[in-house]
Amino acid sequence: MGRARTKRAPFVRSATVLGAWLLLAGTVTSVQPAWAAYPDQPVTIVVPYPPGGPADLLARPLGDGLQKALGTPVVLQYKPGAGGQIALRHIQRSKNDGYTLVLALAAYAIGPLVSKSAGYDPVSDFQPVSLIAKQPLVLYVGATSRITSVSDLVVRAKSHPVTVASSGHGNTSHLAIELLSQSASIRLTHVPYHGGVQAVMAAISGDVDAVFAGADSLRHVKSGKLRALAVANDARLSIAPETPTFAEAGLPNVLVTGWYGVLAPKGTAKERVGKLDLAVKQVLSELSKSEVLSGYGFKVVHAGPSDFQAFIQQELARWSRLVADRHLVADETEGEKAGVAGNVRR
Q: CB atoms < 10 A from the CB of 16, how many?
């Protein structure tokens, strides 16, 4: 019997070792996804405004470039409304795994300043990834409007109601209206829409007297649908050299530039944020050579996570005084009702 046990013992030890290896193999298999290289699945970029507007014009080449740089599909998901806050709330509820991002606009920093129910802190509730571009705003009127200059608009506003459309309550276009009102000591009636495309169409159709919109809408000037009165920039634009600045029109304080950046949910791993920023920087290097983007008035500007965070804080400091001076704080529902009622004919 002693010899029988001696012969069986190696088999028992082998079975034990085999079982241990099988257990280890199962463990390795179960944790393998955690070791997988990032990204190994599609990345979604949420766009806070409807297709066709300046955000979309920038998001599409950005998404295409990131798809190549990251080596994984990049999907654009549109969630317009509430000045971008619907998209931002969606990101707040998303996993912080680096697979869901948002293309934030300047309204991201302004929103909590003007809306009691914004529901987020632009400094602490999201993770900045990259600042990617800037674009100056332009004041437009319909091509058949009797208003042919900024001075015409100012004179008219002192004796008649003047309506000016924006892409939504709390957007840069909204604050541009307030800044113009303050600088010229006039009263302008703000008419918010659910996006820049709708606001521009309102000016083209004559539903409103004027509209503040991005330089990409200069294409409607070339097609004969709009007239550009002034650019809210410190210099004339190379794509519209005939359009004066507000400073040339006697209102040097009217300087408003929209900006675009990529944000991730709060708590996204630093390593993943770094990889995303590196990919964005690589894409921007190519987009900076794009005549299409420059033709829309975009200036490609890169800033990484920490510099982008500092920039957001600067924006908050800049706009908080105007918001207080103009008493712009309102419930979100008020802005939304105004947007729904935006189709107002004089």
A: 10
Q: Where are the domains of the chain?
A: 43-135+257-335, 136-256
> Which residue shows structure tokens 């921007």?
284
Fold of 43-135+257-335: D-Maltodextrin-Binding Protein; domain 2 (3.40.190)
Class of the CATH-defined domain 136-256? alpha beta
Per-residue pLDDT in tens (0 to 9) along the chain, 346 residues: 444 444 444 434 444 444 444 444 444 444 434 445 899 999 999 999 889 888 999 999 999 999 999 999 999 999 988 878 889 999 999 999 999 999 999 999 999 999 888 889 999 999 999 999 999 999 999 999 999 999 999 999 999 999 999 988 889 999 999 999 999 999 999 999 988 899 999 999 999 999 999 999 999 999 999 999 999 999 999 999 999 999 999 999 999 999 999 999 999 999 999 999 999 999 999 999 988 899 999 999 999 999 999 999 999 999 999 999 999 987 544 444 443 333 333 3
SS3 156: helix
From CA 132, how far away is CA 4, in angstroms rounded?
Answer: 76
Cβ contact 118:316 at 8 Å: no
The answer to whether residues 262 and 280 touch, using CB atoms and an 8 Å cutoff, is yes
Asked whether the beta carbons of 308 and 165 are under 8 A apart, the reply is no
Tokens of 307: 């510099």
Report residue 237 as tokens: 């634009």
Find the radius of gyration of the CA atoms of the chain. 26
Given this chain, do its domains 43-135+257-335 and 136-256 carry the same CATH topology? yes
CA distance 40 to 38: 5
Q: What is the DSSP letter of 208?
A: S
The single-letter DSSP state of residue 148 is -
End-to-end CA, the chain: 108
Contact 145, 229 (CB under 8 A): no
Angle made by CA atoms 152, 176, 113, in degrees to the nearest 5: 150
Q: Among the residues of the chain, which ranges form H helices?
A: 2-35, 54-70, 85-93, 107-114, 150-157, 172-184, 196-205, 218-222, 270-287, 291-295, 305-325, 332-340
